[in-house]
Design brief:
The structure is a homodimer of 347-residue chains. The relative contact order of chain A is 0.12. Chain A is 45% helix and 18% strand. Chain A is α/β, with parallel strands linked by helices. The structure holds a DNA duplex (30 and 30 nucleotides).
DNA sequence: CAAATTTCCGTGCACGGTAACGGAAAAATA
DNA sequence: TATTTTTCCGTTACCGTGCACGGAAATTTG
C-alpha cells in the first residue's frame, strides 16, 4: 500500500513538503540535518512516491530512442515493429515517446550517423541492436558518461553498463536446429544453404548458430556429411542455378538447413522443381517463411519472439526511467519456439 | 496526445466541467440537450480521460476475483500462478487488487461455494476457468445481471457475455501431438496412456485433444494401431503393473503419448525399466515434465503458456475496468510451444 | 552593529479529474 | 401568481506531487 504521502513524511520530520521534495529529487538547499532526518523518516515509513501523481504534476515529457536497422515489411527487422509499437502505446500515458532512429545495417557510417543523432536528442533511454560491435562500444561509453541508460536486444556486446538484454541463445538454436533436422532418419547428408551477402563477413549471431549446429552433428552424427552452398540474396537467378547444380551432383540429399531468416529464398526453387519428401528447417517467423511452412515446403521454423524482446526491453527501460526499477535479470534469453504447419496458425 | 482535457470539453460545450464529468460517468442530472452537445464535442475533440489523474482523484479501490481450482505446487493449475502474480503487481498501482478464490476441481459443491463467495465480494471483474459448464453458466448469468465483466481462461463455455478468452486450441494440439510423435518412423503402433480419475468423466479439453490426435492418425497413418491403457493417477503401483503388463504383451511399441499434463507419472516406469529409443510426447510444462524432458525420458512436450494466458486475461480485464477498453480479439488461442531438451532451458 | 549575502525552507498554485454541496432555473402544485 | 418540488448545473475542495516565489534565519561583510 502506497498510503504514505510526502505530507506524512514532512509532518513527521517537522519540515514542509517542499523540503521533502527537495530531498527526494536531490536538489540543493537543504541543511544536512534536515536531509538526514527526512531520509530517516522516509526509511521508517517506507514512503514510496505516487508515480501517477508525480507524472501528473511534472508535465515534462521524455523520449526513448530505438536504434534499429531499417527494414522493409517482410524482412527480419520488421518483426520487432509490433513490439515497439505496443510498448510505445503503453509508455505514452507516462509521457514517454519512442523515437525510432534507423540505420543501414550494412554501412558503418550510417550507424555512426544514427548514434550521433541519438546523442543530440538527449533521450531518457536508448534501445540498441548492436550490429556493429566496436562502434557500439564507443557509443555506449558516451551514454554512460551522460548517465543515459541503455538496453540491448537481439545481440549483446561485451559491455558493463547495459541495463538489460533480451535475445535468443544463438548457439543453442543451432544445436536445436540440427536435432530437429536429423530426427527424421536416415540422415547421412545435409545441405546447408548459406545465404549471405559476403561470406567473409557473416554476422556473429549466424556464426554461433552455425557452430551449435556443427557441434551437434559432430557429437551425434559424426558420419553425416555437411555440404555448404553459398547464395547471394540479391541474385535470384544465381540461387536457382546454384541449387540446380548442387542437386544434380548430390541427388541423395534430403535434409536442408539455413542459419539466418532467409530460408524463403530457396522455397521457390524447391516448389518449382517439385522436390518432395525433404526435411527443411529454417529460422524466424518472417511472413514468407510462415507461408512456406503452411505449404509444407519448409517443415519446421525455429523462431524467437522479436516483438516480445522489444516489448520487454522497452518496458524494462521505461520502468527504470519512470519508476527507477531495476530488472530482475540482466540477461534474458527468450525461449525458442518450434513452429510446424500445425501450430503456426496460433502463433 | 491526450492533450484534450475535461475543461476544454466543458468550455466548448458551454457548460462546466462538473457537467462533463457527469456525462462521462453516466450519472444523472444532465439535460438531454447538454448531454448530446457534450458527447458531440467529446467526439470531435477526441477527448480521452487521463486515467492517472482519475485514479488519483477517486481513491476508491476495486478488486478482481480469480476463480481457479486449488492446486499444489507442481500441479497443472499452479502454472497460472506466476501470471496472476505478475498481473496483480501491474494492477496494484491502479488501485485494483486480485482476490484468489479457489475450489476443488472434482467437487461441484466447492465450485458453487466459490461462486457465491465471489458474488458476495462484488468485485469489479472476474476471471474464471470454467471446469463446470452448467454451473458456470448460472454463475455468469448472475454476473451479467450485476454488470460485472468476466473473462475465461483455459476453457470456455457457450456464453455470450464474456469479455475475452485465452486458451489453447485443444483439438489442434492433439493433431500436432500425433504429427510430432509419428515423424520418427516407422510408426505402426502407438500407446496412448490415459491418466484419468474416471474414464467416463474425462474433461472436455482432454477429449477434444484426443479427437485431434485420432483424426491425424486416421488421415495420415491409417494402418497405425492405437492402444489405450488406462491409469489411475492416485495409484502408483497400479501404474507400474499396468504398464509392465502392456509391454509384455506389446514389446514392439515404441511410441507413447498422453493427453493431459501427467506424463511424468509414467516416466518413473520407463526409467526403472531402462526403456530406450522410445518416442514419448506429452503436454504441459509441469516441473516434473520438464525434468523428464531434460533427462530425455520424454522427448517432446507440447505446452501452452498458462502464465501468459492468465496475465493477458487479467490485463484485458483491468484495461476494461479502468480504461474501458475492449480487447481487440475476443477469442485468443495462444500459440502451442514445442519443447525438447534443447530449448527447454530458455523456457 | 548594521547591512548585504547566502542558506534554508514554507507557501501556494498547477496538473486533470472526482464528487459533494448548494443554488438557480424550470416544472409541478396549490 | 405564489409556493413547493424537481431538474439541472456551477462551484469548490480535494487527490499526491512538482516547482517557483519569496521570506525568515543564519552567515558573511563593511
Amino acid at each position: 500500500m502506497g498510503k504514505v504521502t510526502i505530507i506524512d513524511v514532512a509532518r513527521l520530520s517537522g519540515v514542509s513538503k517542499g523540503t521533502v521534495d527537495r530531498v527526494l529529487h536531490n536538489r540543493e538547499g537543504v541543511s544536512a540535518k534536515s536531509r538526514e532526518k527526512i531520509l530517516k523518516v522516509i526509511g521508517e515509513l517506507g514512503y514510496e512516491p505516487n508515480v501517477y501523481a508525480s507524472l501528473l504534476a511534472s508535465r515534462k515529457s521524455r523520449s526513448i530512442a530505438v536504434l534499429l536497422p531499417d527494414s522493409s515489411p517482410g524482412e527480419f527487422w520488421s518483426l520487432y515493429a509490433s513490439g515497439i509499437e505496443k510498448a510505445g502505446a503503453a509508455a505514452e500515458p507516462l509521457n514517454i515517446s519512442l523515437e525510432r532512429v534507423g540505420y543501414n545495417q550494412y554501412e558503418l557510417d550510417s550507424f555512426r550517423n544514427a548514434c550521433s543523432k541519438v546523442l543530440e536528442m538527449a533521450p531518457a533511454g536508448v534501445v540498441i541492436a548492436p550490429l556493429f560491435k566496436a562502434e557500439t562500444s564507443l557509443f555506449t561509453a558516451k551514454l554512460r558518461e551522460k548517465g543515459i541508460p541503455y538496453v540491448f536486444i537481439d545481440t549483446k556486446i561485451e559491455d558493463d553498463g547495459y541495463l538489460v538484454y533480451y535475445g535468443m541463445p544463438m548457439y543453442k538454436s543451432g544445436y536445436l536446429c540440427a536435432d530437429i533436422l536429423s530426427v527424421v532418419r536416415p540422415c547421412e547428408e545435409i545441405l546447408v544453404v548459406r545465404i549471405e551477402r559476403d561470406k567473409f563477413r557473416q554476422s556473429d549471431p549466424t556464426a554461433s548458430r552455425r557452430a551449435g549446429f556443427l557441434d551437434y552433428i559432430e557429437e551425434r552424427l559424426p558420419e553425416c556429411v555437411v555440404h555448404n552452398v553459398f547464395i547471394d540474396p540479391k541474385d535470384p537467378k544465381g540461387i536457382e542455378s546454384r541449387l540446380r547444380e548442387f542437386f544434380a551432383e548430390h541427388p541423395a540429399v534430403r535434409h536442408i538447413a539455413t542459419f539466418n531468416s532467409r530460408i524463403h529464398l530457396i522455397t521457390g526453387f524447391l516448389e518449382k522443381n517439385g522436390m518432395q519428401g525433404l526435411r527443411v528447417v529454417g529460422f524466424d517467423n518472417l511472413p514468407a517463411n510462415l507461408d512456406a511452412l503452411r505449404k509444407d515446403t519448409v517443415n519446421v521454423l525455429i523462431t524467437q519472439h522479436p516483438d516480445e524482446q522489444a516489448a520487454s526491453a522497452i518496458r524494462d527501460l521505461v520502468d527504470h526511467v519512470v519508476f527507477k526499477k531495476t530488472p530482475p535479470r540482466r540477461d534474458n534469453f527468450m525461449h525458442m519456439d518450434i513452429l510446424t504447419r500445425y501450430n503456426v496458425e496460433y502463433y
